[in-house]
């Protein structure tokens, strides 16, 4: 992403909570001022040897921020399949 979108900001080290109470690693991508990239919040969980990835993507910060509460609520409703996940 950084090669494709110069000036892309990445806020890593965030966490979100799923329905099992586990903390999911989460990151936020923020385009440079005037940039063409999307505002995104990405969370993921591991299910056995697979990953489940959740993404909120918006064209601008206001739209992203407006959808963030619903995105986090969706994550809180997600429970792992329980097949070897940790």
Keywords, separated by commas or semicolons:
alpha+beta; four-stranded antiparallel β-sheet; single chain; 20% helix; globular; 86 residues; 4 strands
- C-alpha Rg (nearest Å): 14 Å
- Number of helices in the DSSP assignment: 1
Shape: globular
What is the end-to-end distance?
Answer: 29 Å
Kindly state the percentage of residues in helix.
Answer: 10-25%
Quick summary:
This protein is α+β, with helices and mostly antiparallel strands. The chain has 1 helix and 4 strands, in the order ββββα.
Describe the fold and architecture:
With 86 residues, this protein is an alpha+beta fold. 20% of the residues lie in helices and 41% in strands. The chain is built from 1 helix and 4 strands, in the order ββββα. The protein has one helix at 61-77, and strands at residues 9-17, 23-30, 39-47, 50-58. It has a 4-stranded antiparallel β-sheet. β3 (39-47) and β4 form a beta hairpin.
Describe how the helices and strands are arranged.
Layout: E1 9-17, E2 23-30, E3 39-47, E4 50-58, H1 61-77
């Amino acid at each position: 992403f950084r090669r494709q979108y110069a000036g892309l900001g990445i806020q890593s080290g965030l966490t979100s909570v799923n329905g099992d109470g586990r903390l999911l690693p989460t990151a936020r991508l923020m385009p440079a001022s005037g940039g063409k990239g999307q505002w995104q919040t990405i969370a993921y969980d591991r299910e056995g040897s697979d990953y489940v990835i959740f993404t909120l993507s918006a064209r601008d910060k206001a739209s992203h921020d407006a959808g963030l509460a619903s995105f986090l609520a969706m994550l809180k409703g997600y429970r792992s399949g329980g097949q070897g996940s940790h």
